[in-house]
Each structure stands twice: as structure tokens, then as C-alpha cells.
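Re-running the complex after MR caught last week's input typo. The corrected sequence lines follow. Everything else is unchanged.
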Amino acid sequence: MDPECARLLPALCAVLADPRQPVADDTCLEKLLDWFKAVTEAGSSLLLLQENPCLVELLFHVLKPQDLSSRILSFALRLAGTFAAQENCFQYLQQGELLPGLFGEHGPLGAAAWAAPTVRSGWIQGLRSLAQHPSALLFLADSGAVDTIFSLQGDPSLFVASAAGQLLVHVLDLAMRGPAKGHGRLQAQDWPACAQRIVCHLEDCLCSEAAPRVTQALHVLTTAFGHCHGLWTQGLWVQLSPLVARLLEKDPMPAPHALVELLLSVARSSVPSSNPGLWETAAQTLSRLSPMQAGPLAAGILKLQDCPQALRTQAFGVLLRPLACVLEATAQAPGTPGLLEGAAGDPMAVDMLPPSKSACVGLLCSTLAHLELLQPLPQRPSPWPQAPLLAAAVTILRFCNGSAAPSSEVGGRLCAMLVGCVRVQRAALDFLGVLSQGLGPRELVTQVFAVLLEYLMSPDSSPTVLKKAFQATLRWLLSSAVPPGCCDLEPRAQLVLRELLAVLQKRLCSPCWEVRDSGLEFLTQMTRRWGGQAGFRQTLLASEVPKLASQLLQDPESYVRASAVAAAGQLSSQGLLAAPSSPEHPAGPQKTPLEELLLVLTTDSEGFPRRAAMRVFTEWLRDGHMAVAEDRERFMARVLQAASGDLDWEVRVQGLELALIFLQQLLGARSPGAAPPGALAQALRALCRVQLFEFAFRSLFDCDRPVAQKSCDLLLFLRAKAAPSSSPQEAGDSPDVAPVEAALQRWRAGEQGQPLGELAPEAVLAVLRSMDLEALRDTLAESSDHVERSPQSLLQDVLAAVGVLGDNEADCY
Amino acid sequence: MKLYCLSGHPTLPCNVLKFKSTTIMLDCGLDMTSTLNFLPLPLVQSPRLSNLPGWSLKDGNVFLDKELKECSGHVFVDSVPEFCLPETELIDLSTVDVILISNYHCMMALPYITEHTGFTGTVYATEPTVQIGRLLMEELVNFIERVPKAQSASLWKNKDIQRLLPSPLKDAVEVSTWRRCYTMQEVNSALSKIQLVGYSQKIELFGAVQVTPLSSGYALGSSNWIIQSHYEKVSYVSGSSLLTTHPQPMDQASLKNSDVLILTGLTQIPTANPDGMVGEFCSNLALTVRNGGNVLVPCYPSGVIYDLLECLYQYIDSAGLSSIPFYFISPVANSSLEFSQIFAEWLCHNKQTKVYLPEPPFPHAELIQTNKLKHYPSIHGDFSNDFRQPCVVFTGHPSLRFGDVVHFMELWGKSSLNTVIFTEPDFSYLEALAPYQPLAMKCIYCPIDTRLNFIQVSKLLKEVQPLHVVCPEQYTQPPPAQSHRVDLMVDCQPPAMSYRRAEVLALPFKRRYEKIEIMPELADSLVPMEIKPGISLATVSAVLHTKDNKHVLQPPPRPAQPTGGKKRKRASDDIPDCKVLKPLLSGSIPVDQFVQTLEKHGFSDIKVEDTAKGHIVLLQEAETLIQIEEDSTHIICDDDEVLRVRLRDLVLKFLQKF
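Corrected-run output:
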């Protein structure tokens, strides 16, 4: 601990111990605890307490009956726990009977303060920190704390209850860690007494008729198998699995969700390697649970790296069953091959869909979400039933828009439940998008595009559904439009594209801005991907879409304008942008795309469109866009001028990014080391002409740190390129750097209004060399509040807050 | 209670309810889809229409070629358009006491009923309903009268001939009852019979029932009606909406506890969501105009047009269309736009508050002020001077058979740059377009119907829980084109009763109670006796006096004084024969005590048998049987009157008398 903090500590303790002083706010106490934790982790707690007796005094003070706030009490409990985590310090505190006082029956446990959840939580967390060594175990056993923890598992505060469960696991782990060392696996009867008590308690809970107690026990076990990796966990499972198996036989099954969590936690632990019986339990559970409850278990099993094939098959079957029902509900002839072998025609399978709308929607959504997560995994079931899954997704989407023809009563019910259901539509569209990773039979792919087009065309599609439909369409187009080895769109994609552009045309005129926005995003992505394909270009140019896109640069909604900027930038890159004209000004002077975007950058009142314009410019410069290549310096000068004066820091950062690319293009980014002197001189002159230095130097003192950092990087890059080539000595007479340095001084002092004026390349180099950019970079790398976050500052804050009150008190008298 | 169903059109209902002693007509909608069988009435001579070939029978017989013309494979009647009236034969309409109107679309047949059936009653409607209804009628009359057509076709209506015609003429129903449009004089006379009402106003009908209009949320002044007596309540729900548009929101709470709920006027396009349709409308409008095309919106002069103009007001600037002129052409355009601004009390809360600012509640005022929206009575006159293209024109009639819209269809139909956007759901757009084929202009169908859809209906019914629901048969099955959509029908328990045109329904509930008043002096004379805690009884002897459906119990006339030999008696003095009534008995006979009493009175050899309904006490010696049941006691003895009377008196001891 640094001396300044040690000096402040007694005052802090006095403040905390004084009930009359206002309690510093919770975050201060949390920060103090963090600090003490860091201090104790770095050194000896015992030494800390001996050097700062005020701390022990504070803890003793808390024990006295008085009106201390529950927050301070909780703080003290946690602080004591932190100190007692080291065994010698624990012993030191034990000598003073401090720990029994704090954590024993005569402490807060028996007092009125116990009613505050924060005190109970502090008590648990204190013990959690303290329970690190064998002495602590003895203390826990003797003080009766374990019984209190048992009862706190049912605490009305969820935080307290959950923390109690975790503490139990921690204590169990601590108890088992000692004897397990060197002994390998122990028999249950050889377990330490403390562990036996906890396990006994868990057994009681598992046998209980009260569902909450069963749930508590299952939660504790789930945590134990998830967090403890000792061999003893295998013994624990051997001991408890019969009780868990008995739970499965109960009707109704108690706490099914917690049971699923436990089984998955055990399955992920080291237990299965020694205890294959687990898989039987899992299989039994799968068959006993309702479809909604079994879904997470099935998905969890399928994500396991190592598990018997039979169980995987069963789990996949469970997961697929709702979709099999959907397919069955529209199958024209009974017995049509479905998703599951044997599911077709099985009345049990078809009837498994829940009768209520919300349950059915929930089941379908969660099934689709599970399958969506499973699809990209290497351990996903193989063979993956791509075609039936595609068919199921398409059918669900058709049920949702009312176009599916149900062939059975269940189908009719499904139809009524799913029509217009946005939740299912979104889930199914996401899933359909993911399925684009693997293709399907030609006929099905045609259906996929047909249903996607139906959604894109339907006036009833909500904006979020439309967005998903656009995304899914793009994914399908990407995966299937250009056949391998072919350079143009395949004829079917060409047809889809034509219809798509007609829809897009309409969507870009939608009164709903979200729709216009997602339409533009779709256009940008499509153009980026196929801007070079002749078929795409032809279809796009024959439509109104490019014209509409550039009209949307004037949209009243800033997000739409930003997307329109991106779209116009992309279209222009590909030479697909006609000069915009609106019905407002049909005969007005037509601007080039560059002029249009510059106008956005200089005049738009919102940040998003301006940022988007900067991104487009960066891309144009990088890719050598025609409009930029014509007169690169003029382009840079105009853009940098606009960006340097922008109020939005992201625009300024983008401006510096643009400048860096320009620099790299001039000096060669790839070649390491300095640039050739001739090229450097030329480049420096160009940089001066576009006034890059004024922007960069000014940005060094920008009030937004990322801007300053970016500028620092830029100048460092330049210095690296320039440094060795020409030193001032070689250049002969030293350039006059005084005005530049004077300007920099002023900027550093916050007088940003001062212009830099004309710059000579030599002066720039001289200034660059004279500046300690590395030091500046290091300073900037520290977070902006590094000064404020020091412990000293924290202590001062706490004291200052109280000090103010002291003054007021004096005034009152 | 009976319901006579005079219209088969679910959204243009006309039903007659007989309830207690009243005959109430609920709405009188006019089915105008019949006009789709006629040729359009062009404002300006149309060579295309006048040169259409006459239609001849398959055998080449051409006697109908003057009446029927053929256009692109469809056959149309070349005559003044005619309308399909509600059924007039099912019930004598002169007996109708009152007509309740729920909204301005459902009163278009009013002149036919009030002027030609001997109707002498009163019509009840809210003020906006009457005013806007008048505008609609005025527009209709104007549209038809300003294009006089000499010819009136009737040959084709002959049943034998109609059978030979192609569809849809062949299948048209009740063609013999189709009538030409009424005149302005008839309209005025019909409207003069209307009495204005306000929401929640209670109107007594002959003391028998009370009717109350409630806001239905569909249009300015639109109402649902509650028809109730003291013990029965019938709700009539017609054209209601839960969407937030311009009218006052729907009053659902007052519909609770109905015995019968008559449900009509649901959305005609249950699969189209109005919000999506408005979006579609705007997008298509913008697309057309941006390409230099014109947009034609066939519409009624009131209703959805207010909402459309409001949407456009917000949309045109964002879509860069502020320089595009919007024209609203109707003989009543001006009145409609102005009326909408003055009915503040009938508007939704948001619009009402604007009035206090003060600002016009609808933003179309600003559109007019800034010259973005211009309105004209017809295409003749000022309009032709101001007309600028590309533009958007709102005009009637949505059937495309008469009105200024006919002119624009002829004018713009040939160019694929132009678009006609159908927003009114009353007419099939394909049938409406049939006489204009072949057509190059684009057609967009965005029906905007804000009335209740089936999901909303099922929520409403769950909320208000009527005992019985009665609705048109169309609502009790999925639409024929989408037979799998079981969600598109009324779903309630018990299942809704359905009706169709010309059907009489006996409504499934019986009246069980009637309220009767007791005169104070009679009430004073009553002596209630508490027979159970909280329940007292008293016998009443009185005269029931019934007048104007009010029932009053009056004290009975005093028994006639002995008139001392005077035998003369006038008929009016003839008082009801007041017999001395036997007292009423109540209570139950405890068998054990009864047996003890019998024994005390010397009866012996008593045997008690339990039966399903009570007990039988056997007096074996006296050969007598006393049958005691819950509501009767019989003494069966063998012609021994003395014994019977003795036993009766013993029984009576256990009972209370009144």
C-alpha cells in the first residue's frame, strides 16, 4: 500500500464506523473492496492489518450494538472475509474472536440487521472469501455456519439464495480437495464430515416432496459439476444418481428445467468417462420430458463432443419432431417421407404440438433456434437432413402468411395459430438463412426463393420480418446464384433478381423508414457482391432502383440517409449510379456522386450520414475510384477540410484514417523502412498542399482520445518513413519551426481556433522529430480516468464527500 | 323475439328486430354491387363505349343487342345503373316503428324504405352520420342525374331470358327488384324523418324498450346500438373499428352482459392489414409519380380519404413529392372536407385537443392552404384550367360505373405510366375494371378496411361475453377461396347463429320477467312476513293496469256496498269478481313431530314410509294415507270428510299462512 493511502486510511475507517456520517454510496464501497482485494492478493494481509490497526478496529467497531447501516455491515463482513482468506491472517483474527463475532450466531445473524438482504449477502460473500484453507473449514463446522447456509438456500432474495448455493459448492469443493489429494477417488464413507453433511443435505432435498427444495439441490449440483473438476465429483454422481433417476419416475416430474441443466452439466464434466450410466439417464429423461422441456436437453446433448451415437440420434429426433409435425400437417398423401423415419403417420408424433398458441409458437421458435445454432457446428448430426429442414422452414413460413394448404386437422389448427405470427416468421427466416450454407434439391430452392419473394412483396410483412427476409434472400443468392466455374448469374437467379428489384423499388418508397433502410442495405450488399456481373448490371440499370437510391440521400430520416450514402457509394464504385434527379427539381443541375456525398459531409445535420460518407470516401480512395483518381489531391483537400471541422469525433477519426491511406499510397505502406528521399519530398509537398498536417497536429490535442490516438499513429508512421533519410544537419540550414511550435502550444492549451498557416515540409519534419510522440501515445493509451481511478483518489473522494457535510454542520451552529 | 333479415350483404345490413311490442329496423344498407353489371356513364362522350358491339345469343338472335353490349368478353347492360334493394316482401315495412342507423354507409337505401313502403316511423342517427350520409346520397344522385340516359333496359330481366345470358348476369339475384337511383327530393324527404341522437343518449321507444347509440370507432358519428328492456339486452354491432384513426374510439364496455349480440359489418378483407395497405398505397403512389405517371384513386368522398390525406401529408415531403398536385373531385368535395373539421366532438382524443389550440383537427386543411390539395365539384370548370400532370386524383365512384372517375379511366387507361389504386373494399376491382379492358395502366389493389377482423372479434366476444351471437352466414365459415383458413371466421361458444337474406330467425331466448310498479297506497297495505332470513313474502290483491307498455298494480276496488235494493247497475261499475282467496301456505312438515301430534290426537298404528319425493304416513286403522311431498300434501281417505278435515287441520298447524 502506498504511504499516501496508508495515511488516509484511519480517517476513512473513522468515517465508515461513524453512524452519523452519511454512508458513501455503494459503488465506493465496492471499489474499496476491490482495492483491498488487490492489496491482499499482492501481499500479506496479516502485515496489512498489523501496519494499519485502524482496519481491525473498524471490524471490532462493527460488532458493537449500534445503528450502523446495513451497507456498512455488509461491507465489513466482506472485508473481514477478504482478510481471512490467508490462513495466518485468519488465525490472527480468530485470536481476537472477531470472526465468530462477525459470522457466528452472536453476530449480525441473530440481530435485526439480518433482515436486510444486503447483510445476508455480505455474510455469504465474506464466508466465500474466507473459505480457502483447512482452518476455515473447521471454523465453518464449529460455528454452525453450514446450517445457516442450508437455510439461506431458500432465501426470499434470489441473489442471496443463489449465492448460498454457490457457497455450498465452494465449501464442498474445499472439503473434498484436501483428502482427495493423493488418494484418487474416495468412498463416500471416507469423505470429510463437512462434505458428508452437505451431501446428506442434498440427498434429503432430492428426496423431498417440496419442489423448491429439489430445485435448490439440483442447482447446487449443477454448479458443482460445472465448476469443480476434482475426481470426487465422480463419486458424488455415483452417490446421487439413483436419487436423480428416481426424480425422473415421478409424475409430474419435479423441476424439469433444473434437471436438464444438471444432466447437461454432468455430461460436460469428467463423470461420463467413468460412468456411462449417465447416458441411460439422459435417454430416459429425453423420453419422459415434454417436447418444450426436452428441446434444451436434446440441443445440449448434440453439442457435446463425445457421446454415444444412439443418444445423439434420439436427441436429434426429439429436436426434429416439431418440424416433422409441421411437414406432416401439409403432406398431401399420408406416409410421405417426412423428417423423421417412422414419424409419418404416427399419430402420437403429430399430436405432440401443444394446443395453445403461445406454447406452440414458443416450441417452434426454440426448435428453430436450437437447429440454427447446431447447423454450423462440426459435431452437428450427420447426415444433416438439409432437404426436409428446408421444406419445414418453407412450410412454417407459408403457414405464417396463410398460403400453406393444411392436409389435416392439425394442419388447420397450426394454420390458425401461426397466421401473422411475427415471432415465428423471424425465427424461420433466420433459420432459412442459415440453411443457405448447404444447398438443397433444385425444386426446393425454387420454393425458398418463392416464399422469400412472397414475404418481400407482402404489404403485411412487418419491418423486422422484412429485414430478416432481405438477409435470408441475400444469403441464398450468395450461395446459389453463381454456379461454380461460371462468371455470371445463373438464369434462375437472374429471374429472381428481376422480381427482387421490382420489390426493392417499391420498398424504397415505403413510408416506413426501417423498410427503406433495410432495402438500401440489401442493395449495397448485393451491389458489392455482383456489381461486376453483366446480368446483374443489366437488370439493375433497367430498373428505377439506382435513381431511387440516390433520391434517398435527401430522406428525412438520418439512418436512411446514411444507408443511402453507403448504397450510392457502392453503386458509384461499380459505375451503376445515374445522376440523381428528383421530381422536385427535374431540370436542376445534376451533381456527380462525389459532389452529392461531399454535400452530405458538409451539410448534413446528423452524424450517421456524415460518417457513412467518410467510409465511402475511404473506400473510394483505397480502391482508386474514378472520381477520386481524377484529382486525388483536390479530393483529399476537400474531404480533409470538411472532416477536420466536423463536430462528430468518429468523422474526424475516419478523416485521419483516410489521411493514413493517402499517406500509405504516397509513401508505400508495404515496403518497410524509410521512403526514398525524392518520393518523400514530393509526398511531403503534396501533404502540405492538402493541409493534412494542420488536421493531424490539431487532432493530437483533440478532446476525444480516439482522434488523438489515431493522429499519433499517423504521425508516427510518417516519422518512421521520413526519419533516417534526411536529418536537419544534412538539410543545411534549420527550418523555422517556431511558429509551428507556438501554434501547437496554443492548441495544447485549448485554443483550437488558431490557424497554423502555410507549412514548409522541412518545418514539419523538424517538428515531428522534436515531438515525443511515443510518450504521447503511451499517455493516450491509458484510459482517460486513470488518474481518477487510483485508490488514493477513491479514498479522497469518500473523505471529501463526508468533509463537505462536516462544514455544513459547523455552519448550522 | 324475431329477426327478419332483409339483406344478404354482411357489411350493408338491413335487419328488422321484433322485440317486445316494437318493430325496429337495424340499418338499411344499399347493395350497389349490382351496378357492376352496367356500362359506365361517361361524363364526356366516349367513342369507345358508344361503339361497343351489341350482344347476341348463341343462336344469333340479336333482340337484346340494344340492351346488352360486349366488351373484352364481358357483357354489360347498357342502361341507367340500378341497385339491389333490401327485401321488401318478407315483412310489411309500414309496421316498422323506428330505424336505427349505425353509419353513413349503412343508410343509403333509406329513401327507398321511407318513401315507398308506407313507413311512418322515426329514424335515429347521429349528426355526422346524417350530414355525411346526405353528402354520399347527394353525390350518388348527382353522378347519375348529370348523365341522363334515355334508355332503361328491362328485357334482359325476364327470367327466361336471364337464364340464357352469360355470367355474371345469369347469376344476378332478384333482378326484378332492382331499382334506379332515387331523386334529391326523395333524399330530402327521407332525411327529414331522421331524429338526431348523441352517443350514450337513452331513447325510450313506447315505454317498452330503450335504445342507445354507442361509439363504434369506424367513421365520424358511427354507432353500435344497445336495445334493452328492464330484463333483456340486445347489442347491435355494425361496422366497428379498434384502430386508432380519426373517429372516437369504440365503446366496448357498454356491450357487456348482452343476451343477444347481432354482429355485422366486419372487415371485408380480413387478410389485409390496413397499416400494410397504407404503406403499399404510399409506395405505389410515389413510384408512379416519380416515373412521371398519374395516380387515380377511386373513392368515396368521406371516410378513409381523410386518413389517406393525413398519411400523404406526412409522407409527401419525405418522399420528395411536395410539388405534385393532389386533386379531390366530387360534387360534395368541399362540404366533405369542411364537415370533417367541424365535428370535433365526434373525433378521437388527439384531434379533439387540436381544436382547443385552436388548429384544424385534420391536416388536410394545411394541404389546401398550401395549394398541395385542391378540390373541385367536377372535371368541368376550374379544374380543367388548373389541371397539371403528373398528379394524384381522388374521385368517385369506387364502382367505376359513374362519376368523374369514368373520365379519368378513359383518359389515363391507355398509358402504362399511370396507376389506378383501389382503396375501397366494397367492389371487386377486377369486375370494376372489366368494361375498361384492354387496359394499359397499372392497377394496384390496396383495400383499406379498418373494421374489425376476426382476431379482434374473438377478443371482443371474450371481453363482452354475450349469451348468444347472431351474424351473417358468411362469418360462420372460412372464405370460399381460402377454405383452410379456419381463423377467418367467428369463433365463439355457443356457436354463432347465422342468417341469410330473406330469412326469419327466432332469437334463442325467452323473456321471463317484466317490471311492474306498485302504487304507494297498495304498497302501504302490504304486510311482509319473513319466511327465511332476508326473504319476506306478502300476498297482494290488486288490479293489474297496463298502458303504454307500463304495468302498474293498483289497489282493488272496495267490495261493492250493499246497494239496498237498487238493482240498477251500470256496465262501468262492473268490478272484477273478488272472491275471498284461500290463504297461501308455506313451510315444511317435520314428519316425526307430525306423527307425535297424530298420536296425541288419538291415532294409533301409524307407519311412516320414505319415498323418493318425501314420506307417506299410513294410518292403518283408519285406512288413511297422508302423502307428504316437498310441494304438496295429500290426504287420501275413504270418503270420510270429518276425518279428512281433522287431519287437514293437523297438517295446517305446521304451516304458515298468508
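None of the earlier attempt is carried over here. Residues 274-445 of chain B form a domain with the Rossmann fold fold (CATH 3.40.50.10890). The CA atoms of residues 204 and 210 of chain B lie 4 Å apart.
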